[in-house]
Amino acid sequence: MANPGSILVYVGLDLVGDGLIKLPFLRALRTAYPGARITWLAGKGKTVYAGILAPLVRGLLDEVIEDVGIGDAWWELRQRPLAGRRFDLVIDTQRRVMTSLIVRRIAHGCFVSAAADWWLSDRRPSATKAKPPAMIRQMLDLLEAASGQPARADTPLALDPAVEAEAARLLPGKAVYVGLAPGAGGRHKCWPLENYMALAMRQASRGRVPVIFLGPAERAWEGEIRDAVPAALLPLYEGASPLLTIALARRLAVGVANDSGAGHMLAASEVPLLSLFGPTSPDKFAPLTPHLSLLRAQDFGSDAMQAIPLAAVAEAIDRLIAAQPGLRTTPG
Questions:
Q1: Is 149 helix (H, G, I), strand (E, B) or coil?
Q2: 3-class SS at 107?
Q3: What's the CA gap between 151 and 112, in Å, rounded?
Q4: Which of 8, 29, 210, 284 has CB 3.0 to 4.6 Å from 133, enough for a Cys bridge?
Q5: Contact between residue 272 and residue 254 where contact means Cβ atoms under 8 Å apart
Q6: Which residues lie across from 257 on neighbouring strands?
């Protein structure tokens, strides 16, 4: 669809992890339709785009509607959701057929949905292809079907200048900062903490500054890390926002993370990112970011994260830094 004046995007709900993963879709949607009024509709619950991530989507979304009970029950097929409103383009990001039928009743000019193998959709992909494993790639397929063009997440994320200033205070100057995020939602997804600490010490020995990103679930590691790596910075604190994490990540030369929410925050900054994967699939869960490198435990003979050698991670960091010739080799 060439130039819709109004766009509605339907989701069920968005938790923090969902919101971070979907950011490339929002950026690509705004790139494709810079002049459109874009409404985000969370029909079955809350969305972080109306809460903690609201400042991050300013300029990407014009309106957020949440928790309105659209898409749950068959009797909704007998009414018109959002009665009195019409959208030039409606993009349904989920695949439950009954929900899609309900969303399709919102007044629209063009409806795009992959439900029922795209049979409900007014636009379809130009070529038959299998459903991508990654949710974000599925969402970008919807946008490409709607626009007829490759999706490009070119529109930048806008951060509050106060958040940027706080990040500059916490990570000042032009040091070569290497970010390490050792946590994850499940310990089976974590590369061993002792490896992260050894990696941090290696960075310090090379004149770089290791920056450790700990979430609330990893605060118990703080004392051990400070004792083992006195040169490391631990700039986050209890309750620190994802926005500050992204702002801090923008000041890194390289980031290293497990399959985790912190990894998606680092990815949102577009810092060169090394993602470590073991029992989970990078095809499904790897962040979508322009400077991504992957190391998989399976390439070293096991599904377990500890199979990834320390030397392989350290060498990958060295390569990523060497590819940025403008970086200083010592802190400043």
A1: coil
A2: strand
A3: 15
A4: 284
A5: yes
A6: 181, 275
SS3 for 64? strand
The amino acid that residue 136 corresponds to is I
Superfamily of domain 6-147: Glycogen Phosphorylase B; (3.40.50.2000)
CB within 8 Å of 14: residues ≥ 6 apart: 22, 42, 46, 47, 48, 49
Would you state the structure tokens that stand for residue 256, as one six-digit string? 């290293």
pLDDT at residue 241, as a whole number: 86
Give me the helices (H) in the chain, please. 16-21, 23-32, 97-103, 115-118, 135-147, 161-170, 193-205, 222-228, 242-249, 261-268, 282-285, 310-322
pLDDT in tens, 279-309: 999 999 999 999 999 999 999 999 999 999 9
Tokens 């009024």 found at: 37
Q: Is 205 helix (H, G, I), strand (E, B) or coil?
A: helix
Tell me the CATH architecture of domain 161-322.
3-Layer(aba) Sandwich (3.40)
Share of the chain above pLDDT 90, in %: 89
What percent of the chain has a predicted confidence (pLDDT) above 70? 98
* Residue 97, SS3 per DSSP: helix
Q: State whether residue 77 is helix, strand or coil.
A: helix
Nearest 5°: CA angle at 136, between 132 and 137?
A: 35
Q: Which residues contact 327 (CB under 8 A, 6 or more apart)?
A: 176, 253, 321
Mean pLDDT calculated for residue range 63-70: 96
Query: Do 161-322 and 6-147 have the same topology in CATH?
Result: yes
Neighbours of 323 (CB within 10 A): 11
- List the domain boundaries for the chain: 6-147, 161-322
pTM over 0.90: yes
